[in-house]
Amino acid sequence: MNAAPLFSRLSRRLTGAFCALCLGLFVLTSQLDAGSAIITDRHVQSRITLMTGQKAALITFSDMVAGRTPYNAASARAARRALISATGTIPKRFRKQRMEPNSHARPEIWLQWTDFKQRAATARLMAKEINSRSLTGLRRTIPPMIEACHSCHETYRGTQNRAITH
Ligand code: HEC
Questions:
Q1: Mutation pick for ligand 1 pocket among 85, 112, 153, 162 (CB with most ligand atoms within 8 Å)
Q2: Which of 3, 50, 70, 124 is 20 to 30 Å apart from 39, CA to CA?
């Protein structure tokens, strides 16, 4: 047996396993965060609604990649479009500095506004890069999308009542 195809099959399988793992982690961490906290400020509410919509689009993808739902070209395409459009409005939704006890936004967003906008732009680019035309395409292009979400959260999303508990 030739070693080359075996190796490439193996590495494909490993990539698949890694991808399923990181999707699982993503869904887990975002579920932990999806509390029913009371938000009264409409600017805060609208940025959270935006983020929740992005999460819904990613769940569409992760369900297909993990085999929980069959691949469906039309819904994959719709989810990609939704993500491109949503990530494009992140700067607009966060422009006004608004804080609430139940918001997880860190004040650094407005101190490092250029960097924040840059991360939003990277997320939009990754959304455009999503290849929704096949399951293989999704497997390859969803992990960098998730990475772009995480990268911003790591820096700009804190835990609840951070200022009080730390
Ligand atoms: C440029 C930065 C940035 C990017 C990119 C980003 N987020 Fe967020 N996200 C935030 C911030 C900041 C918050 C906290 C907002 C708040 O609580 O006021 C947040 C909150 C969330 C929440 C929690 C909403 C809630 O119920 O409290 C989810 C879910 C979420 N983001 C999903 C995503 C997904 C999915 C992506 C990628 C497609 C993404 N985010 C990309 C900055 C970002």
A1: 153
A2: 124
Q: Is 69 helix (H, G, I), strand (E, B) or coil?
A: coil
pLDDT digits (tens, 9 = 90+) for 65-107: 999 999 999 999 999 999 999 999 999 999 999 999 999 999 9
The CATH number covering residue 154 comes to: 1.20.120.10
pTM of the full predicted structure? Answer: 0.82
6 pLDDT band, cuts 50/70/90, is low
> Which residues span the domain enclosing 119?
18-27+39-94+102-165
* Ligand 1 close to Cβ of residue 117 (< 6 A): no
Residue 106 lies in a domain: yes
Which residues, 6+ apart, have CB-to-CB distance to 134 below 8 Å? 71
- Does the Cβ of 39 fall within 6 Å of ligand 1? no
User: What total of structural domains would you count in the chain?
Assistant: 1
Q: What is the rounded distance in angstroms from the CA atom of residue 85 to the CA atom of residue 123?
A: 11
